[in-house]
Amino acid sequence: MSIYKGSGVALVTPFKDGKVDFESLGKLLDWHVREGTDAIIITGTTGEASTLNDHEHIEVIKFAVDTIGGRIPVVSGVGSNDTAHAVMMSKEADKAGVDGLLHVTPYYNKASRNGLISHFKAVAECVDLPVILYSVSGRTGINIAPDVCAELAEVGNIVGIKEASGNISQVAEISRLTRNMDFDIYSGNDDQTVPLLSLGGSGVISTVANIIPGVMHEMVCKYLDGDTEDAMNLQLDIKPLIDAVFIEVNPIPIKAALYLLGKIEYEYRLPLCRLADGNYEKLKAEMKNQGLL
């Protein structure tokens, strides 16, 4: 029940004059298909979903599905710290025709082990779509421990995890516990993509793929095809760019990078704002070093 293997882009949501810029979004979606991106992950953290109201959130999902038109899978971020709201958004995304759902751990109110398992079972059981868990304790304050992940992997349509803990030992334990299951592990950290693939991972949900989609696709494909040395070299070559893309909180730098490429307006929704001047120049310099400008 795997949704995809390869490089999925955690796509930004472009804004213009305070509204979603659907014209720029459509161009980005078509560009990613041409560049070889293996899946679109829409309305996630990088997509500033936390500042979209429900109507906007659903409209962005529908637009992505309609624009992609089945060419590659579309996975929608619909997570919430309110299980009832997460269920509602899952059903709406299902109606919109997505290929899968991305569900982040509940944030702020957090949850006990039993509460976390009950939450994810509720959102998985409300639809027939495949569900990818999203573990990013640095943002949510709650981790999906390997044993919890393994228990949730037994739920029929929970098919994978975006693992962004940064803890490669945790990834190894998740892989050990789920290796005999139909369960995909995706890197949620661009700089750990190849290390995660070496532990049985299926790919990446990538921020930097917003500006180098072809490179990320090539890197993952090379590794999965057995060309591990070339994949490793690509990972090391883009490490400075990845560092620059995370010089401030995501998605501030990546949207600045897309602006520098002329693909979107330089616009966010508060509390996110433009890069500090010095960091903007550092990002610009590294993009030049990488031949992007």
Structure description:
The protein has 293 residues and is an alpha/beta fold. It has a single domain, classed as TIM Barrel. The protein has 13 helices and ten strands. It has an eight-stranded parallel barrel, surrounded by five helices. A two-stranded antiparallel ribbon has the order 2-3. Helix 6 (146-152) packs parallel to helix 7 and helix 9 (213-224) packs antiparallel against helix 10 (228-237). The longest helix is centred in the first third of the chain and has 15 residues, at 54-68. The mean pLDDT is 97.
Write the layout of secondary structure elements.
Layout: E1 6-10, E2 15-16, E3 19-20, H1 22-35, E4 39-42, H2 54-68, E5 74-77, H3 83-96, E6 100-104, H4 113-125, E7 131-135, H5 137-140, H6 146-152, E8 158-163, H7 168-178, E9 184-187, H8 193-197, E10 203-206, H9 213-224, H10 228-237, H11 239-245, H12 252-260, H13 277-289
Parallel strand pairs: 1-4, 1-10, 4-5, 5-6, 6-7, 7-8, 8-9, 9-10
Antiparallel strand pairs: 2-3
